[in-house]
Amino acid sequence: MAQRGIREFHGKKMMAKYWSEYFKGLEKYDGKIALIDPKTTMDDLAKQNPWLKKEKLVVKPDQLIGKRGKQNLILLNATFNEAKNWINERMNKEITIGKVTDKLSHFLIEPFVPHDKNKEYYVAITSNREGDAIHFSAHGGVDIEEVWDTVVTIQVPILSNIDDIKIKEKLPRDLPDEEKNMVTGFIKGLFKFYADLGYAYLEINPMTVTKGGFIPLDTVARLDDTAQFVCGHKWGDIEFPAPFGRGLTEEEKFIKELDEKSGASLKLTVLNPKGRVWTIVAGGGASVVYTDTVFDLGFKDELANYGEYSGNPSTDETYQYAKTIIDLMTRKKDPRGKIL
User: What topology does CATH give the domain 3-30+116-235?
Assistant: First the structure.
């Protein structure tokens, strides 16, 4: 499994698209949301999405950045012109978060949702060796780590049916009784959505409670890219952006473009261009095994790349993939030699 982060925009769009299928009986999340990149003309965007000028807005970068609230990277309760100016002031500007510096290039805009801060909930689903784990708290928000003792964790074993898991009985005691049925239904629907669409990680923090359902205010998601052949048609026009602070090299861009044009899978991440150990591995599962073995043998600091080719690539695609890795490997000599 290769977990790959997706933009919040795509995670919420996917949730809105399949809401009626997985969250029956709950008030529909309409998925009003827009993505802005350096090529976007804001006035044209407003013509395509009239709600932008009719509602108060939330604006934030959408580049796999965590803790945006604590980084003062969220604009709340803004007019369209305020949102427009805020984005223009930051577009293509470098910022530093911790030790990582990068340019802001993608922003998300969605309606501002007035709500009671005491009704911010936290829910996440993560994968592990035994299956999947559901995490829930009635005290969501930016400080969830500080109140982690309020989070309950419900394990869903491999091959088990979520409908057979007693969710309601395991919810936090401080969750109002009148909300437990609705929360239970939402969690079961979210798990089915997570499983059916090939997610490996899905977090909504916070989500707020309405009279008839929930609204996801902030979402973090990662897909299992090896599930693309099974449910990729449900993902739609999606992209896997590089993490904040890590732009793609020319070689990574080349393989990414090759992958996008192919029905096969071609992946490449350069970890250490000066590394001595390079891999050309057929199969996503095999690539994980090889990487783990390199680490186990004590060569983690020498591992140069991670990637795989699979799905019956053509002879030319395989040639271009191998040529790229061998070119990277042989650019600089190492007196100790190199390993492929």
Answer: D-amino Acid Aminotransferase; Chain A, domain 1 (3.30.470)
- Inter-axis angle of helices 250-261 and 315-329, nearest 10: 170
Give 282's DSSP letter: B
Residues 190 and 169: beta-carbon distance below 8 Å? no
Range(s) of the chain covered by CATH 3.30.1490.20: 34-111
Question: pLDDT per residue over 261-298, tens digit each?
Answer: 888 889 999 999 999 999 999 887 788 888 899 999 99
Q: How far apart are CA 127 and CA 64, in angstroms?
A: 19
- The DSSP output letter for 278 is -
How much is the average pLDDT of 175-188? 94
109: which 2 tokens? 């805009």
CB count within 10 Å of CB 261 equals 10
Does 250-329 carry CATH code 3.90.1580.10? Answer: no
Distance CA 19, CA 188 (A): 13
Spatial contact of 75 and 60, defined as CB atoms under 8 Å apart? yes
Q: Centre a 10 Å sphere on the Cβ of residue 43 and count the other Cβ atoms it contains.
A: 11
Q: Give the helix/strand (H/E) hosting 214.
A: strand 214-216
Written as one letter, the residue type at 117 is K
DSSP states of 160-180 as a string? --GGGS-HHHHS-TTS-HHHH
CATH code at 34-111: 3.30.1490.20
CA 295 to chain centre: 26
* In contact, 108 and 65? CB cutoff 8 Å: no
Q: How confident is the model at residue 89 (pLDDT cuts 50, 70, 90)?
A: very high
pLDDT, tens digit, 9 for 90 and up, residues 40-57:
999 999 999 999 999 999
pTM here is 0.79
Question: Cβ(150)–Cβ(172) under 8 Å?
Answer: yes
pLDDT digits (tens, 9 = 90+) for 107-116: 999 999 999 8
